[in-house]
Amino acid sequence: MISNPGDRKQQVEEAKKRRQKSESSAPKEEEPNDFPKQATLFELGGDLRPIEATIGQSDDKDWFALTSQNGETWQVEATVTPKSDTLDPVIRVAVADSDDAPITYNIAGPGEPETIPILAVSSTAQRVMVTGNDGTTGDYEFSFQKRLSGGAVESEPNDDIDVATRFEAPGEIQGFYDRPEDRDVYFVPRKNLTGEAFTLEVSPIDDVMQQVRVYTHRDMKAPYLSLHVPPTEAAGLPNVSLPDDVLGVWIVLTAGDSFSRDQSYRLKLLGHPPVEHGLEVEPNDDAETAQQIDSSTKLAGYFHSIEDVDHFRLFVDGIPEEGQSATGQGAVAENAADAGLPSDDMPEPANDAGMAQADAGDVGDAGSDIKPADPLDRVADKEPADHVVRVTIAPKHEKTRLALAWSLPRNQGSPTVLEASEPGENVTLCNTVVEDDYVDLEVRRLAAAEGMLDATFDYGLIAENVQDVPGLEIEPNDSRDTADKLEPTQKRIGYIARAGDTDVFAFAVPFPESPAQSEGDTGAPVVAPTPPTPRQVQLTLGANSLNLGFKLLDDEGGLVAQVNRAGAGAEEKLQVDLPPGLYFVHVAAKRGSACEPYEMSVKVAE
After folding, report:
1. Half-sphere CA count of 226, side-chain side, radius 13 A
2. DSSP conformation class of 483
3. Are residues 217 and 123 part of one domain?
């Protein structure tokens, strides 16, 4: 069908109107244009027609200043195509308002097109230079194609902080490593990252190892956190937390000499969904960035890599307020100061054995009201600690084996390490007396099933102060000199928390009260009292998953009885007649240890 000539004339007129002043029916470079200030101005119109140009001599440089139509921001693919095999084109992109060297594209060979896959063009002139590699010359065509994308895409130049691609998170953005040593810089405003934490993830690129660095300051001297993205699987941090006083974050992605123009990466930034309790947050990979917690903490944690170690600082008196620093000094020194004593002049115990000076044989002088001394008075009273810390880490996957390391400020050297013996087992720092302001913790994974790096939680952490548990043993209590008192009216709670642990309790069979003895009116001599009658005593050791037993010893260390008949999971009992005096019960496990409580009680017949 032949079109109407009038229509054709109208189309030509409209095409002329679309052309900008710098355009012609065959746009050409304008010499001289060897320097940025001499750049040929070219406004990309709706036609996006190519520019015809020539590298006429070995040191020739053609500079162009590209802008878009109507001040819009476009993403274009810019290509320099040689018209002969003599020209090996090189493209250099200037970074506006920066002293950095231009970004260089020099991948193709002689006679082959050189391309910038994604170039940002806006109302501000983007200066681009074309030259010949190694002094090559020839004619070329500089062409442009507008890129259409269904989502956010980074565009060059964005190798520098001043030209960083603004990322309006939450969401995702697509990027390319379009040349060796490419560097993509993104800026995300702080206001876009609300909530306790956010999730960062980068998708993989075949045969390309990516490095991701996150900065919170423009100087970019030290990354806030960093990670590697292997070629085979996505990598990320599901739980990144930011300081409140930063303007935002700068995310820098690099791939060294590797690049791919066919396959992109996707950078995702999403808010972390709410959690029931607390959340372990990154960065916390060393003691300086340790996450602060207290002794009522429950949280869920992640391992974002095989090597990831999560550090925590557990403050026993609550997390210090901002501007307040922890001294690491314990409550002992503070209490000494409160009492008006220097910390180096603490009072010594009543005696080295830890027992009071009363003698069970002191029954008073004849002719007075006799009040026999309580044998249990020979055992020194023990003050319970202010802070008895228990920390439990529980794996969320049955094939994960965990380790927990802990240390106190006053202790020098390596931390104490507790390891699960089998995958899926909990690891517990059991009932540890903390006299400092805090205890440092490290949680790591020793083993896991292959391919278990995912978005689900890896472990749970519970911190408790158990010093208020009624009847709780007071460590150390592993000898007669440090025994805990066992009164008939109470139950003591103990733990065999480490292999070889022994808990010692002291109880008394009281002497009977005797009436006063005196010489009667008849002058009859005083009759010596008869020896006291033994009393029936019942000792009960509550059931425990360990095979617990106990020994009964007299006050001189002589063995009275040994009980270990019921086995693991059942209680042990002993009923025996004992004369008045002081006795000791030694509780231990046949093998193993567990942070699981047992009960010890005694009944003495009247």
Report:
1. 10
2. P
3. no
Q: Residue 381 has which token pair? A: 């009273």
Show Cβ contacts of residue 198 under 8 Å, excluding neighbours closer than 6 positions: 169, 170, 240, 242, 269, 270, 271, 272
pLDDT tens figures, 199-238:
999 999 999 999 999 999 999 989 999 999 999 999 999 9
150-187 pLDDT, tens digit per residue, is 568 888 899 999 889 999 999 999 999 999 999 999 99
Per 3-state DSSP, the chain is made up of helix, strand and coil in percentages (nearest 5) of 10, 40, 50
Q: Which residue has the tokens 């791919």?
A: 260
Q: Are 202 and 265 in contact (CB under 8 A)?
A: yes
Do 140 and 21 share a structural domain?
yes
The tokens describing 210, both together, are: 């990516």
Is 5 a residue whose pLDDT tops 50? no
CA distance 496 to 503: 8
For residues 50 and 537, give the distance between their C-alpha atoms in angstroms, rounded to a whole number. Answer: 105
CA-to-CA distance for 451 and 426, rounded, in angstroms? Answer: 22
Maximum C-alpha span of the chain = 159
pLDDT confidence band for 528 (50 / 70 / 90): low
- State how beta strands 61-68 and 126-132 pair: antiparallel
Residue 458 maps to a domain: yes
Indicate the residue among 465, 486, 501 that finishes a domain: 465
Task: Quote the radius of gyration of the chain (alpha carbons, Å).
Answer: 40
Tokens representing 327? 């001294």
Rounded to whole angstroms, the Cα distance separating 5 from 17 reads: 19
Closest alpha carbon to 550 in 588, 600, 582, 593: 588
Is 50 inside a domain boundary? yes
Distance CA 259, CA 253 (A): 12
Q: Tell me, yes or no, whether 264 lies in a domain.
A: yes
Residue 375 falls within a domain, yes or no? Answer: no
Strands 61-68 and 40-44: parallel
Report pLDDT for 456.
82
Q: What is the dihedral of CA 145, 149, 153, 155, to 10 degrees?
A: 10
Q: Are residues 315 and 446 in the same domain?
A: yes
Query: In DSSP terms, which residues pair with 535 in a beta bridge?
Result: 578
Residues 132 and 59: their CA atoms lie apart, in Å, by: 8
| One domain, residues 456 and 485 | no
The DSSP bridge partners found for residue 427 are: 393
What 314-319 contacts at long range (C-beta under 8 Å, 24+ apart), as own/partner pairs, is 314/389, 314/391, 314/438, 314/439, 314/440, 314/441, 314/463, 315/437, 315/438, 316/386, 316/387, 316/389, 316/434, 316/436, 316/437, 316/438, 316/439, 316/465, 317/387, 317/437, 318/294, 319/292, 319/293, 319/294
Q: Torsions phi, psi of 70, nearest 5?
A: 60, 25
Q: Specify the pTM.
A: 0.74
Task: Read off the DSSP letter of residue 472.
Answer: B
Instruction: Tell me if 550 sits within 8 A of 563, measured CB to CB.
Output: yes
Domain count, the chain: 4
CA distance 337 to 178: 67
